[in-house]
Fold this sequence. Notes:
Layout: H1 5-13, H2 15-30, H3 36-49, H4 53-65, H5 70-79, H6 81-84, H7 86-104
Amino acid sequence: MYLPKIYGKFSDKFPDIFKDFQQLGKTCRESGPLDKKCQDLINLGIAIGANSRGAVRSQSRKALESGATQDEILHAVLLSLTTTGFPKMIAAMGWVDEVFNEVES
C-alpha cells in the first residue's frame, strides 16, 4: 500500500498519537452497519469535498481494494458535482484517473 513520506515521518515522530489515530479510525469503521466498500466510497466523497488530491487518490485506491469498480468510483465523483461544484468534481476526476492509470500499468 502506498503511503506518503510525511505519513511515515509523522508515525515515527509521534508513535502514540499515530496509534491512537489509527484506533479511532478502526473504531469509527466498526461502529455502524456500512460495509468497507460503501465506507470507502463515502470517504472518497468527503475527500472530494475537501478538495484534497492526496485524500482523493488514497480513497480511490482503498475503494478499488475493497471491491469498488472504476464505474462505481466515477459515479461517486459525479455525485459530487451538485454539492461541491464543477471545478472540484473535475479535479477529482483527474486525480481518480491518475489512480486508474497506475493500476492499469
